[in-house]
Amino acid sequence: MTVLSGAIDDFLRGMQTTRGASPHTLRAYGRDLAELDEFLAECEVEGPAEVTPRTLRRFLARLDRRELADSTIQRKLSAVRALFRHLRKRGVIADHPAQGLRKRRTARRLPGALETGEVDRLLAAPDVTTAAGRRDAALLEVMYSAGTRAAETVGLNRGDVDLRRGVARVRGKGKKERLAPLGRFALEALHATLEDAARPQPARGAEQAVFLNPRGGRLTTRSLGRIVARHALAAGLRRHATPHTLRHSFATHLLDAGCDLRAVQELLGHEHLVTTQIYTHVSIERLREVYERAHPRAG
Fold this sequence. Notes:
CATH superfamily of the largest domain: Intergrase catalytic core
Number of domains: 2
Number of strands: 3
Largest sheet: 3 strands, antiparallel
């Protein structure tokens, strides 16, 4: 038994049951907190009540010395704060030792969005004379049409897709649901793959899945990433493309066309508007590039 093992297990169970945290989030928090637990054992701390702000500042200093990315350190600090907040609510500790822990300012990288011409080439890349190509075409069209995350896309079930109304029920982070509109091209591609005579027979447990692998199992996010990368290469795109690249492109192109920021927030399934606002910076940057190229007095 280590310093925090029981507390960490209880905290992660709470995250899963009350917040609906995904397995990916639970694994990430578990790794980060196990690293803290190991550090506390090295410091000969015997229990949660002995952890002080000074102890946690030393932990932060160790992270700094490893020259980790700011975003990685911020994630680890978020996990530490959340754990001690949980322990305080449970009455295990009287004071929150991470309360004054320095928050690192993270330089937010602007998300990479494809140009509309690049998106067109990517969407046209799959060979729709094959069953796999028809599935891939539907995958790409859905992600760009609805702005779905990778996990949301592969998690779609037949009952989630209403081809007549042109909407899909999407399960986002924290098991939150939203309705995502689907454009004509996405609907046609979905119909083609769902009614495909050459579609693999669904394996046990994947009977309702929209997107199947060649063995009939539900497609995984890792496989989806490989599919997008392969078609980006075939389309001759110079930049690396991922499922999230299509989501970024979806949001950026909507804002470029004058879509309201709050509407984009709803479409993306963001809980907070500030998360969506980063896309306004992308649009401004793109406008600036156009201005610099086109205006005779720009430079």
